[in-house]
Structures
1.
Amino acid sequence: MGWLSVPKDWIASFGDITKFMARVMGEVYSLRVMKFFGESLRQAGILILGSAVVIWGLAFIIGLTCGIEGAYFNRSVGAPAYAGVFSAWCDLREAMPYAFGYMMSAKVGTGLVAEIGAMKISDEVDALEVMGISSLTFLCSTRLLAAWMVLPFIYIAAVGAGFLASYLAVVQQIGEVSSGGFFLIFWMFQNPPDLLFSVIKGMMMATVIVLVGCYYGYTAGGGPVGVGTATAKSMVLNTVAVHIIGMVGTQIFWGSNPRAPIGG
Amino acid sequence: MADEERNDPPWGRPVQSDEVEGRHGGEDEGRSEQDVAHADGDDYPGSHDEAEPRHDSGDYDSSEYDDDAPDSNTQRDVVMHSPEGDADEPDMRVTNEAVPDSIKDQTREGEEPYQWHSGTKRDHGSTDAIEFIDVKKSFGRNTILNGLNLGIPDNQISMILGPSGTGKSVCIKHMVGLLYPDEGDVLVHGESVPNMVDDELFEMRKKFGVLFQDGALFGSMNVLDNTAFPLRQHTDKGDEEILEICHRRLAEVGLSGALDKMPNELSGGMRKRAGFARALVLDPDIVLFDEPDSGLDPVRTALLCELIQEVHAENGGAYAVITHDIMSARRVADYIAVLWKGRIVESGPASELFNSPNQFVRQFLSGEARGPLGME
C-alpha cells in the first residue's frame, strides 16, 4: 500500500536517529570523546561567543512580554500586586525553556547541520576517517560534550535575563507594585527545585537539538541542495521535539503538584 | 559452464560469493561484531597467495580453469590470456543474464558487456599492497563494481584509468574502508578490510595518505594547522617537531608562503598541494590520489605529476592514482589498470599497456573517438 510507505519511512528515520544518538552519547559516556577534548573546548567557545548573547537577548524580550502581560492581566482582575505570579511561572517554567529551545533550534541546530553537512559533501568527513580518526566522535560527540559543559550556565543566565526583564516591566515600566511587593510574590511562587526542573527541560531540548543537528549534518548527501534540505528537516523535527519535551516536562514536573501557595 | 562464466580472477582462486560472510553493504552494519570472519577460514586466509583453488563448489568448470591457471602460486605473474585473441575471441565473456541491468545499459546493442575485458594481469615484479578479490558493489539498482579483481603493486606508482562513472572513486573508498563490498574482499597488506573491527580499521588507515579531489582541507583551519592535524592527533611529537615536519612538507609542495591562509583563500591547485602535504606528514605506506588533475590546467597538472614522482622517489610506498587523464598516466605511471563497467579490462606495467593490442585499451589510452567505447 502506497500510503503506508510514509509512516514506514518515519519509523525508519526515527530508528536511525535513535541509533545515531545512542552512538554519539555512548562515545561521550565511554569517555572516548576525551581524546578530542581540545575540540570540545573549541566548540564550547564557539557556543559561548556565537550563541549566548542571542539566547539571552531573546530571553530578555520574552521576560518583558511575560511581565507586561502579567501586570495588565492582574490589574484587570483587581490584583496588580500579584503580577509576580505570572512572571515567576511564565519565565521559569514555560517561556524560558521554549525561548531557549527555539533559539537553539534556529541558531545552533541549523548551524550544526550546515557545518557538518558542508564538511560531508566536501569530503572533509571522509578525510577525517582516512586519517584514522572517528568522524562521529570528532564531529558529533565533541559538540555534545561542549553543549553539556556550557549550556546549563547559558540557560541559567537566560533565566536571569528573563527575570530581570519581567522586573523592569512590572515594577519600573508599569509600576503598580513596589519592588518589595513584586519580589515577595515572585519568590513565593517558585523554589529551587523549579529551577532545577526548568534546567532539565532546557537541557533535554538542547541535547536533542544538538543530536538532531549532528544527525542531519552527518547523513547529508546530494550536494548543497541536500544540505539545505537536511537543514530544513532538522528545523522541523527540532521544533516538534522542543514542544513535546516542553509538554512532557511540564506534565512530569508540575502536572501533579503545581506548587502554588494558593488557598493556604 | 563453459566460456561464458569464466570471469574468475585471473591470478588466484575465485572467491565465491557465498563463501564470504564479512561486513558488507553498509558502514554500520555489524561493524562491532567480532564474528565477521570468513566462513571458511582455511580456504580463505588473509594472504590469498596461499589460497588453493577449490574446484568442488561446482560453480565453474575446473578443467577449463586449470588450462589457463596450472599453478595458483604463479598465476599472478603470468599473462593469463592471449591479448592477440581478445578482439576475435574474448575470453571473459559472460552471458547477458548474469549482467546487471545498469551494466547492460552501458553496452551497445548486440555486443557482449565484457567482450573487451580480457582480465590480463601482466607481471609487475612486485608484491601487491592492495588487492581486490571479486568485489561487487551496488547502490540500489546501480551496479558499480561487478566482480573487480585488481592488485595495486607495492613501491610503484599505479594508475587506475577508466571512463567517467565506472567506479574509480568507489575503488578508493573500498581501499580505506569507507565503503564495503557487497561481495568479495579487499586486502591491504594481506588483511581483509571488511572484516576489521573499528579499532583495527582506524589503525589500518594510519598506513594511508589520501588526496581527495578538492584537497578536503578542513575549512576551520589554516594550511599549517591542516597539515599538522594528523601529527597532533596520532603522534606524541612536540609542537616544534610537528612544525618542522609541516614546514618541510609544505616546502616540498611549494606552499611555504601560504601557511596562514585559510582553504577558501587558496586556488584549486594550492588546495590539492596542501592536501598532498597533509597526506604525507605521517609517512604513509600507501598514498591514494583521487583525480589529482581534475580542475587543473595542463601546466599545473604536469607540475603536480612531477611532484608525485619526486615525492615517491624520495619516500617509496604504493601510490595509486585515480584519473582519466592519459597525459598524466604517460608521465607518472609505472603500472596501469584500465577499469570499465566495474571490472578491469587489462592491467600491467605502463609500457606494456600502452602497446596493448586490446582494442578498448588502445582506444582509451590514445583517446580516440572510434572504438568499443561510445557515449553509452
Note: Chain A touches chain B at residues 19, 118-119, 122-124, 126-127, 129-134 (CB under 8 Å).
2.
Amino acid sequence: MAPQKKDKAVSLTRLKKGQVMRVHSLPVGVLKAQLIRLGLNEGAIVVCFERLPGGTIVLQKRRQLIAIGHALAKEILVVFQNGGE
Amino acid sequence: MMENRDQGKRPAHLEKHVHVKSLFPGDDTGQTKVVLVGNPNVGKSLLFNEMSGLYVDVSNYPGTTIQVSKGEFGTHAVYDTPGIYGVSSFSEEERVALDIILEADVVLNIVDGTHLERDLFLTQQLIDMGKRITVLLNFMDEVETQKIRIDVQKLAHFLGVAVIPITAVKGVGRETIEKMLRSATEGVQREELHSMLHTMLSKVGSQAEALLMLEGDKTVAEWHGVSPGNHLEEIYVERRNRVNYVLNQVLQDDHAESHVLHTIGRWAMTPLTGIPLLLAVLYATYVFVGKWVAVDLVGFTEIKIGQGLWEPWIRSAVASVIGESWLNEILVGEFGVFTMTVTYVLFLLLPLVGAFHLMLSMLEDSGYLPRLATMVDRSLAFLGLNGRAVIPIILGFGCITSATITTRLLTSEKEKTIATAILQFVIPCSAQMAVIAALLAGAGFAPVLLYIGVMLCVLVAAGTILNKTLKGESQPLLLDLPPLRLPRLANVLRKTSIRTYHFMKEASGWFFVGALAVSVAQLTGALQVLVNALKPLVVHWLQLPPEAATAFVMGVVRRDFGAAGLYHMSLTPLQIVVALITITLFVPCIASLIVMMKERGLKEGTVIWIGTFVGAFAVAGIVSHIVM
C-alpha cells in the first residue's frame, strides 16, 4: 500500500485494518459528546481493529472497542501515524 | 465544597422532575438514598442483588419504558440505574439515571477495571456534579489475569474519593459494602470548572444541576425555565483530558488481549465467521424457544393443563353457578375470558415469554448483540436503520410482541417507526412460522422460493419506502463493544423473571379485553359480518376459496390460528403461497397490536395497522394475478 502523507487529514473511511491514526476532527453536536465520552477525543491515538464490508469501522483504543457506522466514519477526520502502518 | 444536599425543604423548581419517592410509594423519607451508577455491563446488577437481597421493588419509571429497581441495605434505600456513559439527556436511560442521581445522597460508582479510560469519564462527571461518591473498581480478577496494573491509592488521590477494588461475581461481603457507604466523599474538580460552577450555582438549586446547566442539558434547563448553557464541548474535552492524564499516572497496561473470548468476539463481527455464528445462535434459539418450549413444554401446559384440566373444570364450575345463559359463551365459550384467555395467557404465553426473555438476557449479558449489530450495520442502511435494529428484527422471529418492545433501544423516532412497521408487516413470528413451514413443505420447492422471494422484496420495498417518506434523520451507528463474557446464571434468571413478570402484568389485561371483544363479536354476529365482508375480496382478488376469509379473521386473534385454519382447506400450491403471503403480512395478533399502540401511540399504531392490512391484500392479490 502507498504510504500516506503524515500530516494529511483523511476521513476514517479510508483506513484499513491494523492502521494506527490520530483523531484530527470530529462532527459537532451530540455525537461529538458521545465520542469524547468513549475516549475518541481529538488527538486520541486509535487503531483500526476491523474494517467490515460496507465500511463499518471498529476502532480500538487500549482495550476499548468502538463500532462506527459508515455515515459517521465519513465525518471523522484522522491523520495516519507511522506512515500509515 | 458547596452546600447542595438540602435534606429538608426542596426548592419549588425541583418539583418539576419525577421524584424517586413517588416511584415507590411508602418509601421512608428518612432513609439515605444510595444510587448505583456505572457504564453498561460493569456489574451494577450483581452488586445491587447482593446489597438488596431478595426483596426488590421494580417499577416502571413514569413517562418512560425503563424499569428501576429499589432494594434495602440496612437503613439505606438502594437504587439501581440504567447503564450510561455520561449524565445528560441524550437518551431515555440517561434521563432516568439523571433524575435518580440528582436525588442521591450517596453514589456508588462501579467501574470496569479493564476499561478505565471509558468508565472514568462518568466518574469524573459525578465528581464534577458534587455528589458524594465511592468508586468501586470491579473485575479485579480479570485485571489480574490480564496483567493490568492499577495504582489504586494514586487513583484515589487524583480523584479525591475512595477507590475500593472488588470482584462482584465472587461476592463483595457486608463489611466491604459498609465501608463503601462510609467512605463516600466529594471529589476534586478542576479549579476553573469550580469557579464556573460557583457562578451558575446562584441561579439553580444544586451543584449537580449547575454542572448540567453549563453542559447545556435541555432537561435541567427546562426545569429552570432558562436556555441551556453552551460549555458542553469545552467541559467534555477538559474532562477527557483530565481522565487521560490521571490514567497515564496510575495505569500500566501493555499486554494485548489474547484470550479465547476476545477472538470469538472478533469472529462475531466479520461476515465470514460471523454469519455461521449467527446461524448457530439462531438455531440454538429455535431449538430452545421454538421446539422445547413452544412445542414440548407448551404442548403439555396448553393442551394437558389448560385445555385438559383447567377449561373443563371452570366450565362446569361456571355452569353450576349461572346455569345456561348467553353469559356462558363470554365467560367459558370458545373465546371465553376464563377459558381461552386463561389458557392462552398462563399456559401458552407465560412459558414462551419466559423462554424468550431467558435467551435475550443471556445474549445481552454475553456482549454478543453489539457485535452482531456491528456486522449487519451496513446492510440495514438501505432500510433507514442502523445495526442496532437487528436485535428487534431477529427477536421478531420469536415473538413480534416482545420484539416490538425492544424497538425502544433504537435512537431516533424514525428508526423506531420503521422497525415497528417492519416487525408488524413482514416478519413472521415463531408460532406462525411453524405452521407456514408445515404448509409450504407440502407445496413443493418452487412455491417456497416464491414465498421467500416475495417476502424479501416486500421487506426491502417497505423499508425503502418508509425510509424515503418518513421525516427525520437516522442515526449512524456508534456502539461501544463490551468484552465478551460468560453470562452469570443468577443474574440472567433474575433479569428474566423481572422482565417476564412485567410483560405479563402489562399484557394480560389486554388479552381479556381482546377475548371479550371477539366473544361479543361472535355472539352478536359481527364476526360473521366481517368474514362475509372479506369474502368477495378473498374470492375475486386473491382467488382463494371463501373459507379462507374465516382463517384471516381468526389470524387477528392469534397469528397461528389464521395459518392453522388453512390446514383443512384443499388449496393448490400457488393458492397456499398466496394465502401464506396474506397471513404473514396481514394484521398482527391482538397482543402485538396492543403493545404497538402502547409503544408508538394510537395514531401511528393505527396507521401501521391499516397499512399492513392494505399492504397484505395488495401484495397477495398482485402475486395471485401474476402467478395464477
Note: Residues 8 and 71 of chain A are 21 Å apart (CA to CA).
3.
Amino acid sequence: MNENHATELSAIEELNGRYLLFNCSDMLYGVPLVLVLEIIQTKNITYLPGVAPYIKGIINLRGKILPVLDIRLKFGIEERPYDDKTCIIVSEIRDMQVGLIVDSVSEVVTVDSENLAAPPNTKEMSAWYIDSVTNLEDRIVLNIDFEKFLKDDLDVIKVQ
Amino acid sequence: MSTVDPGMESMLETFIHETDTMLEQLDEILLESERARSLSEENINDIFRITHTIKGSAAMMEFDGISNLSHAIEDVFYVLREAPDKLEIVFDSLFDLILESSDFLKEEIGKLQGEADYQEKYPTILIDKLHDQANFLKGNTDTIVLSETESNVDTEVEDDENTYRIRVFFDDGCQMENMRAFMLLTQLQHYCDLLESIPSHPENDSEYSAQIIKNGFVVICKPTNSLEEVLKTIEGVLNIKTYEVLENSSKKEAIVEEKSKDEKSSVVSVEENEAAAKGTVTGKPVTVKTGGVKQSLISVNQGKLDYLMDLVGELVTAESMVIRNPDLNGLKLDNLTKSIRELRKLTDELQDIVMSIRMVPLQSTFHKMDRIVRDMSKKLGKKAELVTEGGDTEVDKTINDTIVDPLMHMIRNSMDHAIESAEERKAAGKPEVGRISLTAKNVGGEIHIKVGDDGYGMDPQKLLSKAKKNGLLTKPESEYTEKEALHLIMLPGFSTNTEVTEFSGRGVGMDVVRKNIEQVGGSISISSTKGKGTTFTIKIPLTLAIMDGMNISVGDTIFTIPITSIRQSFKVTSPDQIIENTNGTEMIMLRGECYPVFRLHNVFGLETELTDITEGIMIQVESSNISACIFADELLGEYQVVVKSFPMFFNQYNLKEKGFSGCSILGDGSISLILDINNFLANQ
C-alpha cells in the first residue's frame, strides 16, 4: 500500500514541470502533462442539440461518454474545419473527463521553474485563465489552467 | 466516542443496515398495535428484542446516544411486559414517545449513513421522558420489582452429566470483549438448552472487559444436541483466540484447541432471538425456539450491484457488436445464427436475473406512508385510514428510493387538503373516517401506483382561476379541458393552499413530485370528482437501465425512441396528406384524427439531405396525454439499448427537459440519443 503510494507519488513528480504544447490559431499553448489523460482523434463526435455552441457534442471513449468542447469557439475565435492534425485532448477536471478540440498538438517539454514567468497583469478578462508564461528559446508558450478556462461551465454544475 | 473509527466501516455498514430494518419493523409493530389499541405479548417481545439488539450493537459500535435511548425504551417495555394491564393508562403518550424515539434513532442512522464525520447527538430529553414513563409505570405497579443491574456473578446451574464449562479467550487487543462475549452467548443459545456464563451479563458493563481479558469468559452450557455443535459455533465466532472445555464441575482440562483466525471483515449478526437472551437476565430458564427456518438472505453492497448491472449492460452492447458485425454482412452462416440465438437467450436470462436482484417490494415504502397518515390525523384532528394494496409489487431499488419523497408529499397533501374534518364528512354523508388508498399494480412493463382519497375533490374551475391569478395559463381559459385544468396543479408556482402548514405548502408542490417521477422515466396523471375525491396515477417503468428502443437516423445523428412510446410507423405516400398551417406547422390526418408533425431535423437543427416528407419515415408516438408524429430519415431497427446518463458536465442544460433521457452506445461504438417522448412533446 505504502509502496504503491510512493511509486504513484514519484510518477506524479516525474510529470511535474512537464507540459504538453498545442497549437490554436497560430499561438502555442501549454497544459501541465499531469492533467492530460490522453490524446485522441476527432471522429464520431455525436452532436447534442440544445447546448452551448462551443460544445461540439459527446464522444464514446471506451464505454464512457465525454463532452467535447472546441477550444477555438470557447476562446471566441473562428471555427476551422477539422483535419488530420486536429485532435482531442482528454483531460480530467474536477473529477470529470472533458475533451478539448485543438488545432494540433506539438510536443512535450520540460520547463524549469525559473523559466516560468507570471502571466501578464492585464485587466482583460480573456487572459485570466493563463496560469504562467514559458519562454522557450525562440517561442513563447502560454500555459492554460483548464479549470479556470472552463470555470463558467463547471461552476453551474450542480452535483445531483 | 463521537467520530467513527475508519476500521469499523464495514461493521458500521452492517450496523446501519440491520438497525434500519429493525426500526422499520418497530414502526410497523407500533402502528399496528396502536390501531388495535392493544399490545399482544408477542409484540411486546418483538419490541423488546428489537430495542435490545439495537442497544447491543450500538454499544458495540460505541454510539452511546443510540444505545442508551434503546435501553430506555427497553426499560419501559420491561415494565410493561411484567404488567401488561398498565398499558391502558399510558397508551397514547407511550406510543407518541416511542415513535418519537424511533424517529430520533432513524435520524441518527440517516446521519451515520450520509455524513462523513458523524457527530453524535445525545437524546437527553427523550431518555428522561422514557425514564419518567418507566418510573410512572413502576409506581403504578406493585407486583413487580425491577432490578436492572444484577451482578450475580455466580450463577447456579445444575452440574449434571451434560453440562460443560467452556473458557474462551479473545484476541489480544480486539476491544469490547464484553460485547463480543455477549454476541457469543447470543449465537450459542440456538444450540443449548441451558446457557449461563461468568460474568453472567457481560453486555451490562464494559468493566467486565478487563475481567474477561484476564480470566477468560466462561460459558456454562447444556448443549441441545452435542458438544461438537457448540464448539463449532464458538470456532465460527470472530476474534476468538483460544477456547478450552473444562469438563463438568471437576474442571479438568480435556481438550485444548488452539485456533488463530484470520479477521474477516464480515460482521457477526446479532439478529434473532435476543429477547430470549435478555430473558436470562430475569434468571428464568428459557427455551429458545429457533423456528427451524434458515435465513438464506445475504446483504450485498449496492455499489457492487450497480457495477454488475453496468457489466451486463456492456455485455449486451458487446453482443450486438458481434451479432451485427459488418464483416458478417451478406454471409450465410446458419451455424453462427444458431449459436447467436443461444447466446441471446443466455444474456437475456442473465439480464433478467440481475434486474430481479435489484428489485425490492414497495411494502416498506408503504409502511412509511402509514406512519404519516397516523401522525397527521393526530395533529390535524382528522380521522383517516390508509388502505394499501399491492405492497408486494417489486420495483428497482433506485426507483423505489426516488418515489418515496413524491409519495410522502402526495399523502401529506391528501391528508392536509383533501380529507375533510369528521364533522364535515358527516354533514356530506360520508363515513366519518376518511380513506386514503395506496395501491400498486404491475401492468406490462410498468408499475402503476395510485394514490386516492375520498375527500373534497378538486374543482377545475377554481384551479383555473387560481392559475389565471398566478399567470400560469398559456391559452384562453375556456379552452382548457377538465383534465388539463387538473394538471395545472403540477406547474411550478402553483400551490392550492396559500397557507403554509407544518406538513405541506412549503413552496415545494406537485411540480417537484412530477419532476422526481419524471426523473426515473415515469409520468403522473390526475383524475378528480368534486365532492368524491381525487386519484393520482403514477406510471413508472420497472427498471431503468436497459430498454427496448427503435433506432432512427436523421442525417448523421441517431436517435432511440422507447418502443413503449411508439404507436406505429408509416410512410407518407403523397404530400397532400400533410396539412400545412399558415404559421408553418404541419399536421396529418390519421383515421379521422389530426396529429401535429414534428420534423426532427427542424426541431434540433440537424443537417440532412432528406427533407421530402414522402421519402422519410413517419413515426407516431404518444406520451401520457399527447400524441404526435415524428418525421425522420429512416428506421434503423429495433435494438436493446443500455441507458447511460449524460456526463455531469451537461447538468446545467437540463437535457432531460429538452427531451433527452440519456444516451446509449451502439454496437459500432457510436452514440445514440434517447428521446424522452413525454418531455419532447411537452416542449413542442
Note: Residues 141-159, 249-293, 502-507 of chain B have pLDDT under 50 and may be disordered.
